[in-house]
Amino acid sequence: MASSMSINVLFSFIVLFSASCAVSYTIQDQFYQCITLHSDRSIPFSTAFFTPTSNATSFDSVLNSTALNLRCLEPPRQKPLLIFTALIESDVQAAVMCAKELKIQLRVRSGGHDYEGISFTSALGRSVPFILLDFAKLRAIKVDIEDNSAWVQAGATIGEVFYRISEKSKIHGYPAGLCTSLGIGGHITGGAYGPMMRKYGLGADNVVDARIVDASGRVLDRALMGEDLFWAIRGGGGGSFGIILAWKLRLVPVPSTVTVFTVPKTLETGATKLLNKWQHVAHKIDEDLFIRVVITTANSTEGKKTVQTAYQALFLGRTDRLLEVMNHSFPELGLTRKDCVEMSWIQSVIYIAGFPSNTKPEFLLRGKSLFPAVYFKAKSDFLYVPVPETGLVGMWKKFLQEDSPIMIWNPYGGMMGKISESSIPFPHRKGVICMIQYLTPWTEGDMKTADKHISWIREFYEYMGTFASKFPREAYVNYRDLDLGMNKNANPTFLEASVWGKKYFKNNYDRLVVVKCKVDPDNFFWHEQSLPILPFKFGQDGKSLIH
Ligand SMILES: Cc1cc2nc3c(=O)[nH]c(=O)nc-3n(C[C@H](O)[C@H](O)[C@H](O)COP(=O)(O)OP(=O)(O)OC[C@H]3O[C@@H](n4cnc5c(N)ncnc54)[C@H](O)[C@@H]3O)c2cc1C
Ligand SMILES: *[C@@H]1O[C@H](CO)[C@@H](O)[C@H](O)[C@H]1NC(C)=O
Ligand SMILES: *[C@@H]1O[C@H](CO)[C@@H](O)[C@H](O)[C@H]1NC(C)=O
Ligand SMILES: *[C@@H]1O[C@H](CO)[C@@H](O)[C@H](O)[C@H]1NC(C)=O
Ligand SMILES: *[C@@H]1O[C@H](CO)[C@@H](O)[C@H](O)[C@H]1NC(C)=O
């Protein structure tokens, strides 16, 4: 493979060079020719390549297919020149070689849930044309219960992963996100938290191997890539180090029966006092229990606009013990047996994702989200100190000014506090009470509407700054937020990128940059918030600096 590849490279150089002398081929044509030359098989253009000129309708529908944030499909966002849907893993290698050869940027999309859509459009305008490599067809999953593991290709959704595990065993699971349409490819590169995080940590804490394509087009597994790079890809953010082909996940035990509940409280029924109390208990309570708070606006019984806080939980055990835990640690919620529903773990995945209770697990194979594709802007914060009641009252006032705002408070503690900050790049560990996500969705595509909602969320974020973590004000890299700053050119400095890099990774930022320099010295893997390289090279041992 390797030698035929290099002959192909040489050959395609000759072809491309002579071609460019004769007629002016577009970059799309050149990329297609290059891929065909690198591939052992013939790929008819129409089966895997989509451009706005060859067929605008199919290009748009492929581009839209997993684009969750419609805001990122509107101008001034720039769309790809071409979408290449990889059909086999060596297509990914070919795409890297060809993009390098043609000096064109490559972006990778697995599940398309990036909050700023940088996996499928560019926020940098026309100056940086790019090709999109789509993983939608690389989604094989191989579960090995004996080995307590699963190999999963990057294009699979986590809902598919959960389903395939449950198909083989009712007492195995995997701790990852709540929204079942997330792509496992991007999801784990940022951490991947979910309702079992207090018991088992993040998805990225439970990865034992990976196969990636590096900037030279080589396929590397954990042994070949080495521990530094294997460390970096588990939480250091997508699109900086290489392309994930597949993850090897370590499965975790789940009880055959778990319990879920949702208990709503409005301002009129004591939401403020209860949220205050929650901040003191939710991160300290039994590790089998995860109670998040989903906060929205609602109509009160008097028809007035109010705030609703929904306490939504997964308990890794049965109702009897859950009631004991709650009675002991959080009686203020007033949980009753009637509120509790026992079910299998896979059914709880469907419940927490918000699908109707009669939804069959097979539904997860359709890769659908309950969260519709809408225009939205989101941000995140970490709390180490509870927001005082007066702060909550001020927060509600601002919250009620927006049309349909959402806040989700996710409790930490348990296993999250036991894993060290440098174990993987995800640094938000000991002492965190909860992560807060702010989100505002809207349905019209015009700029004026977008500006209005984005202004609201920026102001809200400013208000919350009083209570959130400081120096740095931490943020979750999987809730990508370009307001925190972005690369404006091909070679941002260490200092420029540290502005958001420290928020996402704290002190792990430095080590991430060192790994980046070693594995991608030409900065091939680049996007609005990719990690920077340093203007000097590293020695063979990867440690000493040669100026
Ligand atoms: C509705 C919704 C719910 C969410 N819920 C949760 C949750 O419960 N828990 C949680 O932790 N997060 C959650 N997230 C955030 C989610 O984890 C991130 O958006 C994640 O990056 C999505 O991965 P993806 O593959 O779907 O996204 P993509 O948009 O495909 O990719 C995201 C990033 O990773 C890069 N990337 C994609 N594929 C690869 C690859 N194969 N190799 C290398 N880099 C790649 C992309 O270039 C991009 O930078 C949620 C997001 C949404 C929109
Ligand atoms: C473009 O693609 C769509 C669907 O993908 C197809 O129905 C249509 O016939 C194509 N148009 C042309 C001109 O090939
Ligand atoms: C794709 O999405 C854009 C933006 O929402 C929309 O205008 C367009 O009609 C969609 N096209 C297809 C084919 O789905
Ligand atoms: C509240 O009531 C108004 C008017 O009856 C309605 O338009 C709105 O959708 C309701 N909001 C919610 C969150 O139910
Ligand atoms: C809750 O705990 C109290 C004592 O702390 C006890 O008296 C009561 O019976 C318990 N209630 C339930 C439902 O377990």
UniProtKB/TrEMBL annotation:
Leader peptide range in chain numbering: 1-24
Protein's GO biological process: alkaloid metabolic process; nicotine biosynthetic process
Alphabetically ordered keywords of this record: Alkaloid metabolism, FAD, Flavoprotein, Glycoprotein, Oxidoreductase, Signal
InterPro entries: BBE (IPR012951), FAD-bd_PCMH (IPR016166), FAD-bd_PCMH-like_sf (IPR036318), FAD-bd_PCMH_sub1 (IPR016167), FAD-bd_PCMH_sub2 (IPR016169), Oxid_FAD_bind_N (IPR006094), Oxy_OxRdtase_FAD_BS (IPR006093)
Biological or metabolic pathway of the protein: Alkaloid biosynthesis; nicotine biosynthesis
Ranges of residues in domain FAD-binding PCMH-type: 76-254
MF terms (GO), sorted A to Z: FAD binding; oxidoreductase activity
Needed co-factor(s): FAD
UniProt record similarity statement: Belongs to the oxygen-dependent FAD-linked oxidoreductase family.
Function: Involved in the biosynthesis of pyridine alkaloid natural products, leading mainly to the production of anabasine, anatabine, nicotine and nornicotine, effective deterrents against herbivores with antiparasitic and pesticide properties (neurotoxins); nornicotine serves as the precursor in the synthesis of the carcinogen compound N'-nitrosonornicotine (NNN). Catalyzes a late oxidation step subsequent to the pyridine ring condensation reaction in the biosynthesis of alkaloids.
Protein's name according to its UniProt entry: FAD-binding PCMH-type domain-containing protein
Organism: Capsicum annuum
